C-alpha cells in the first residue's frame, strides 16, 4: 500500500485526490501548504509526494528542490492548473521547470483519475535509481 503525501492549498483538490486514491489502497496524507508538507515529509516516510506548483508562501518549485535535496530518490509528482498564456505575454512552462528541478512525473490540472493512477503506479514501480529520469507530462 503506497503512502502518498498530497500538498495542495486547494481543499477540493486534496479531497478529490484522497477520494480517488483511498479505494486504490493508498495511505493518503494531506497538507494544506508547503510548510506543513515539509513538516510531514521530515517526520514520516512516504512512497510518493504530490505537490502543487502554485501555493501561497513557499511554492511547489521551491518544495521540489528542498525535497529533492533531502531525498534524491523520492518520487515527486508535480501538479499545476496554471493556464495564463497569451501570444503577447508568453509564460514559462512551469511543469517543465518542475521536471528540470527533479519532479518524476507532471500532471496538468484538471487530470483524469486514470492519469493520477498511472502517475502513482509509475512512481511506485520505478527502481530507485531511475525515479528522477522519468518526467512524464500529461
How would you explain this protein's 3D organization?
Keywords: Phosphoprotein. The protein contains five helices and six strands; from the N terminus they run E-H-E-H-E-H-E-H-E-H-E. It is of the alpha/beta class. It has one domain: Response regulator (Rossmann fold), CATH 3.40.50.2300. Strands 2-1-3-4-5-6 form a six-stranded parallel beta sheet, with helices on both faces. Strand 1, helix 1 and strand 2 (27-31) form a beta-alpha-beta unit. Helix 3 packs parallel to helix 4. The chain is globular, with a radius of gyration of 14 Å. The mean pLDDT is 87.
Give a short synopsis of this structure.
This protein has helices spanning 11-21, 34-43, 60-70, 94-101, 113-125; strands at residues 3-7, 27-31, 48-52, 76-80, 105-108, 136-137.
* CATH level-four homologous superfamily name: Response regulator
Count up the helices: 5
Largest sheet: 6 strands, parallel
Which class best fits the helix and strand makeup?
alpha/beta
What number of domains? 1
CATH topology: Rossmann fold
Roughly how many Å apart are the termini? 24 Å
Low-pLDDT parts are: none
Strand neighbour order, sheet with most strands:
2-1-3-4-5-6
Mean pLDDT: 87
Q: How many individual β-strands?
A: 6
Q: What gross morphology would you assign?
A: globular
**CATH architecture classification:** 3-Layer(aba) Sandwich
User: Can you give the helix content as a percent range?
Assistant: 25-40%
Computed Rg: 14 Å
In sequence order, what are the helices and strands, one letter per element? EHEHEHEHEHE
Modified residues (4-aspartylphosphate): 52
Pfam family, one: Response_reg
Keywords: Phosphoprotein
Domain Response regulatory: 3-124
Amino acid at each position: 500500500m503506497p503512502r502518498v503525501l498530497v500538498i495542495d492549498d486547494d481543499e477540493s483538490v486534496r479531497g478529490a485526490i484522497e477520494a480517488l486514491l483511498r479505494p486504490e489502497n493508498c495511505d493518503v496524507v494531506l497538507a494544506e501548504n508547503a510548510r506543513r508538507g515539509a513538516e510531514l515529509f521530515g517526520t514520516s516516510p512516504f512512497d510518493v509526494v504530490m505537490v502543487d506548483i502554485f501555493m501561497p508562501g513557499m511554492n511547489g518549485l521551491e518544495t521540489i528542490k528542498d525535497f529533492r535535496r533531502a531525498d534524491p530518490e523520492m518520487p515527486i509528482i508535480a501538479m499545476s492548473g496554471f493556464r495564463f498564456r497569451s501570444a503577447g505575454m508568453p509564460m514559462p512552462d512551469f511543469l517543465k521547470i518542475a521536471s528540470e528541478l527533479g519532479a518524476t512525473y507532471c500532471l496538468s490540472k484538471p487530470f483524469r483519475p486514470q492519469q493520477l493512477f498511472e502517475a502513482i503506479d509509475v512512481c511506485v514501480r520505478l527502481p530507485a535509481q531511475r525515479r528522477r529520469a522519468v518526467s512524464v507530462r500529461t
